[in-house]
Structure formats: C-alpha cells, structure tokens
Amino acid sequence: MPPRLRCFYHPDYFLPLPTEHPFPMEKFPQAHELLVSAGAPVDIDLVAPATLRQLRRVHESAYLEKLSRGTLDNMEVYKMGLPWQARLLYRSSLETAGTIAACRHALEHGMAANLAGGTHHAFPDRGLGYCVLNDVAVAIRDLHEARPDLRVFVADTDAHQGNGTHAIFRGDERVFTYSIHGGRNYPSAKEPGDLDVGLPREVSGDDYLAALADTLPSALTNFPCDLVIWISGADVHEQDRFGQMRLSTEQMIERDRMVLTWCREQHLPVAVLYGGGYHRELGMTARLHANTIETAAAIFAADCHDTSAI
Fold first, then answer.
1. Cα(167)–Cα(130) distance, rounded to whole angstroms?
2. Residues forming a β-bridge with 5
C-alpha cells in the first residue's frame, strides 16, 4: 500500500461565529470532509489540547488568563478579530496541538500536516488578525525543550506577513523566518524577518511564482535546517477577499508543488499548515486548503516510493 500522509485534526477546530463574520470557520470541517469523501491518501488523527505549560513557553500568563476568563478589553478583542467565547482558548489550544503533532511526526517520518494552523499574527501578549495563539512559535519552543539545537525554517507563503512569528524569533539563530506577502497589505506595521519578500498589490500569479522561485530555494539552501514549517495560505487566490493577489487555482497548486518539491529535494522534513483564506465563493477556501493537502500527500507518497526503490 502506498504511504499515506499523516494529518492532525479535531472537530472542535470549528467554533461558531456571528452571522456575516469574515473569518470562514466552516473551512475546517469542510476541508476535512472533502479529503475524507474524496478518499485522499491521508490518515487523520485526533488531537488533545496543548497544555498550559506548552502555551506558556511563548504566551504570557496574563494573556492566557484573559483568554480563559474572558477579561480581554474591547480593543484587545477588536484587534484579535474574533469575539471572545468560553471555548475560544480550548479551540485555539487544539489547533496549536495539531501543529505540535505535525512537527513531531514530520521530524520522524518526513512530512505531516495540521488541518488548520499557521496563526502567524499572534504575539506573546495579544491576538491579532484572527490569530489567538501563535501555533508555530509554540510548536518550535516545544521542540526546543527536548532538542535545544534544532534548526527550523518557517516558510510563510500566506498573503499576509507573519509578523507575530517574525517578532518572536528575532535574534534566535536557530529559526529562520521567510515570508512572501503583499508589501502594502495587512499588517500595516511589518516586523522584520530573516527574509521578507514584499510584493505589489494585485501581483499576477506568474510574478508571484517567479519571486518565490527567486528567493525560497536559495534561502532553504543557505540555512541548513532540521525541519521546515510551511504556512501555505489560501488567501493568495485571485478571488480572495483580503489577499490582494491574483493566483489562479492552478497556479496555487503549482505553488504548493514547487514548495514541497524544493523541500523534499533537500531531504527536509515538512510540516504543512493552512494559514489564511477568505474566498468570495462559499466553500472554495476549504477546497483550496484540501488541494494543498492532496498535493502534499501525492508528493509524500511519490517521494517515499522513490526512496524505497533506491
């Protein structure tokens, strides 16, 4: 039987939001159902929430207490972009646990995915831009607990700069932060990372892919690492509400293939995360995320087959 991509998920990744809220929370169960109904070559494991000890390696106790008790002030809630609910911290802890599990599994087996994740705007003391906890940062700090010298490359191809992740790892020579994004899109105040590729508004798919090819492979080569965490991002699509980019569905699949092929050519373990996505057509954000997972599963199976044949 061909090898199957291990994915991590929980039904409580979904949390009901007010009608007309711009964040498509339904994308998580929808993408999961698309993968299952299509018979995608994936195995899906359920996760338990990340522990407070794991979260505190990145996030301030006072902030976690506010999330737990619902004592965020109005401005904090506004900037986070999600209304407080009693299960918000629980839901975000599950998503973070999925990223932790995907990273651990990828290190051992070569590739894995969280069917969520990539909440790259969250800072240690606050949530921003629909991001409550910084799952990538928590996962990396969790790995560093056991392997302090582990070198991690964060490849962020979401349409928006990963400002929270950049800020958390600034000055940490074990972590390289790469982000290709809209230079004049959210967040307005950028945090410098190790390599930022700011693109013009309404960048064409061809220009995006050319910029990606000009920058990411060399960065991967120049920073020897033990793990790549890839925040894919469905918001680069030409019909996204907030991405301000013009990639077609086919060009997004090509982007996914390019990123994963570069990583596998260098024998780098990869943890695949969703990132953002706000497609104008209902259900299409989930379809784009599912496309990424299906591409990853195909490349993983082909790569394992080629390796076993040697």
1. 17
2. 42
Q: Into how many domains does the chain fold? A: 1
The domain of 300 spans: 5-309
Write the CB contacts of 66 (distance below 8 Å, at least 6 apart in sequence): 72, 76
Query: CA-CA distance, 208 to 205, in Å (whole number)?
Result: 5
Give Cα separations from 195 to 84, 124, 178, 214 (angstroms).
34, 22, 5, 12
pTM for this entry: 0.97
CATH code at 69?
3.40.800.20
- Residue 308 predicted with pLDDT over 60: no
pLDDT digits (tens, 9 = 90+) for 29-84: 999 999 999 999 999 999 999 999 999 999 999 999 999 999 999 999 999 999 99
Neighbours of 287 (CB within 10 A): 18
Using DSSP's 3-state secondary structure scheme, residue 28 falls into helix
Q: Which token pair is 254?
A: 């090509």
What is the pLDDT, as a whole number, of residue 309?
36
Q: What's the burial of 172, exposed, middle or buried (CB within 10 Å: 0-12/13-18/19+)? A: middle
Residue 120's Cβ-side half-sphere holds a number of Cα atoms within 13 Å equal to 32
Is the link from the previous residue into 187 a cis peptide, with omega within 30 of 0?
yes
Tell me how many helices (H) and strands (E) the chain has. 10, 10
Please give the pLDDT value at position 128.
98
**What is residue 303's predicted lDDT score, i.e. its pLDDT?**
80
